[in-house]
Specification:
The chain is an alpha/beta fold. Helices cover about 40% and strands about 15% of the residues. The longest helix has 21 residues. It binds UDP-4-deoxy-4-formamido-beta-L-arabinopyranose (WQD).
Length: about 350
């Protein structure tokens, strides 16, 4: 609730920074811990410009339990939101040890430090990737978690189990896992957004970098799937809507409304949208023509997934509300903002 202190690990990252803005605007005190391996400290200035508040910042790595523990000793923390993790699917296939080492050890250290310091609430950043290619759509929280299609996806599934089993065994803290579908877009201020390292893997940053001329041409990975227009289908969730879901999950625990010590929620729109539909919508709302071509399928891509968010709608009192057109406009505004900084 208002005034409580929240430690946000990975808080200078894409979803972490947007969630920090929503937390501050909801009256929480925020401490960010980030090792800056995939984000910039300058994001703190932008968060301050948006909210008028500069969150406390520790440049620490969750895998370094001793130094990370300082944060708990120096602050009274009421809850943790854990974003800090490696998250590039392709890289995880090439470097599984880095992914298992970083993602699992970070969470285990965090849980240990929470228990040592009496911190009773954690929101964990999980992913719809745990569902693989569901046999039945939309995916609900009861949909089976299938064999992961990448070490990255497997770390999300294992981390959910680490969290669940720790809560069951030790019983002295509560947790909520949020399974994101596909986060896209940027803050309406265009001051924060997605900052991919190098050439983007994800669709929307690839689109905006193609539109601004940083990249030559977007490849649409396959139009021969068993979908209406042949391209893959995903549930694209606006990053600000997604961030608000974290505040709602936190409040559920802090206000003592959790029905079980470990709960899981799908955070999506409930709507499936194809790659080609995203491209066409982006062109339309931003009044531009995108250079793209159809190429072969990308290894590891699933054909179609979208979520059933009704449990989150009901129990968290949260619902995705930002129209896709606004989200795609914000993604383009953010890319143009980045270009203006490079001038
Ligand atoms: C979306 C669609 C591609 C790029 C991954 C992770 C997931 C989450 C989000 C972290 C697919 C198509 C993409 C391009 C394309 N990550 N595409 N050309 O693979 O659904 O999900 O990122 O939490 O866990 O698995 O997202 O944005 O890479 O792809 O045609 O240049 O766009 O085939 O259908 P994905 P994506």
């Amino acid at each position: 609730m208002k005034g409580d202190t929240v430690l946000v690990t990975g808080g200078t990252g894409y979803i972490g920074s947007h969630t920090t803005v929503e937390l501050i605007e909801a009256g929480f005190k925020v401490i960010i811990a980030d090792n800056l391996s995939n984000s910039k400290e300058g994001v703190l200035d932008d968060i301050e410009k948006i909210t008028g508040v500069r969150p406390a910042f520790y440049r620490e790595d969750c895998t370094d339990r001793k130094n990370f523990g300082k944060i708990f000793k120096e602050n009274g923390i009421d809850a943790v939101i854990h974003f800090a993790a490696s998250k590039a699917v392709g890289e995880s296939v090439r470097e599984p040890l880095k992914y298992y080492g970083n993602n699992l050890l970070s969470l285990m250290n965090l849980i240990g430090l929470m228990m040592e310091n009496g911190v009773g609430n954690i929101v964990f950043s999980s992913s719809c990737t745990v569902y693989g290619q569901p046999k039945v759509l939309p995916a609900t929280e009861e949909s089976p978690r299938l064999e992961a299609t990448s070490p990255y996806g497997n770390t999300k599934r294992i981390c959910e189990d680490i969290l669940r089993d720790s809560i069951t065994a030790y019983g002295n803290f509560r947790g909520i896992a949020l399974r994101y579908f596909n986060p896209i877009g940027a803050h309406p201020s265009a001051l924060i957004g997605e900052l991919p390292n190098g050439v983007p893997n994800n669709l929307v940053p690839y689109i905006t970098q193609t539109a601004i001329g940083k990249l030559e041409c977007l490849s649409i990975f396959g139009d021969d799937y068993d979908t209406p227009d042949g391209s893959c289908i995903r549930d694209y969730i606006d990053v600000v809507d997604l961030s608000k879901a974290h505040v709602a999950a936190l409040n559920r625990m802090l206000d003592g409304k959790s029905e079980k010590p470990y709960e899981v929620y799908n955070i999506g729109t409930g709507r499936g949208v194809s790659t080609l539909e995203i491209v066409k919508a982006f062109e339309k709302v931003n009044g531009l023509k995108l250079n793209y071509k159809i190429t072969g399928r990308r290894k590891g891509d699933i054909e179609a997934i979208w979520g059933d968010p009704s449990k989150a709608n009901r129990e968290l009192g949260w619902k995705a509300s930002r129209p896709l057109s606004e989200t795609l406009r914000s993604a383009w505004a953010w890319e143009k903002h980045l270009a203006s900084l490079e001038k």
